[in-house]
Design brief:
Blueprint (H helix, E strand, L loop, with lengths): L3 E4 L9 H14 L7 H4 L5 H8 L3 H16 L7 H12 L3 E5 L4 H10 L9 E3 L12 H10 L6 E5 L2 H10 L2 E5 L5 H4 L5 E3 L7 H7 L3
Parallel strand pairs: 1-2, 1-4, 2-3, 4-5, 5-6
Organism: Candidatus Limisoma faecipullorum
GO molecular function, one term: sugar-phosphatase activity
Protein name: HAD family hydrolase
Length: about 210
């Protein structure tokens, strides 16, 4: 199939959003921004963008970086079983898959170490270190399509954050939102299709979203 599938990582392929929410709550308590639901608001953004936007003090930035490195070092990266099942189904049908994440390469290396065989599921991985403009800009998903050699119009994006959904929609891909992090009603109608998760979701459902 001349089709590509581009996946956000946290909250879509791996069950890590609750852990990151707690991490950023701790950071926000130590360095208050005064922004409601800060951990949710920044989801999908790269760390440099978050730091430059909300924590301009360079010393504070270094302290936050250290907190995140320490947190990620001890973090468990657990894939959603149904997400892996669906990605394996795509691979079996010849659909090229890629991860498009705001995460760093260091974090990805930790994930690969904990989950042998994970990297082989994807033809390409685009990390936050590889893009100039992070989500909601369309650049990450355009790079993902380019990395697997599939026209973005023939790609499907799977996202759970508002910024990620906006990125997918702006890229020209058929975008499918997952209500794994935000409430269904909050993201419904912001993408071509909204689902609760990958349970019971198959290639035929993905393809049908293009004409929805």
């Amino acid at each position: 199939m001349t089709t590509g599938a581009l996946f956000d990582l946290d909250g879509v392929v791996i069950d890590s959003e609750s852990a990151y929410t707690e991490c950023w709550k701790e950071i926000e308590e130590r360095f208050p921004t005064g922004i409601d639901n800060f951990a949710i608001k920044i989801k999908g953004s790269t760390l440099p963008k978050i730091l430059d936007t909300y924590f301009p003090d360079r010393q504070v930035q270094e302290e936050i970086k250290k907190m995140i490195v320490d947190y990620e070092r001890n973090m468990r990266y657990v894939p959603f079983p149904e997400a892996i099942r669906f990605i394996e189904e795509l691979n079996a049908r010849g659909v090229k898959c890629a991860i498009v994440t705001s995460s760093s390469q260091k974090k990805m290396d930790n994930l690969y170490e904990q989950n042998p065989g994970f990297r082989k599921l994807f033809a390409a991985v685009v990390t936050g270190d590889m893009v100039t403009h992070s989500k909601p800009d369309p650049e990450p998903y355009k790079k993902g399509a380019e990395a697997i050699g599939i026209d973005i119009k023939d790609c499907f994006v799977f996202e759970d954050s508002l910024s990620g959904i906006q990125s997918g929609m702006a890229s020209g891909a058929t975008t499918i939102a997952l209500a794994t992090t935000l409430p269904f009603d909050e993201i419904n109608r912001k993408a071509h299709k909204t689902i609760n998760g990958f349970t019971g979701f198959h290639i035929s459902d993905m393809l049908a979203a293009k004409n929805a």
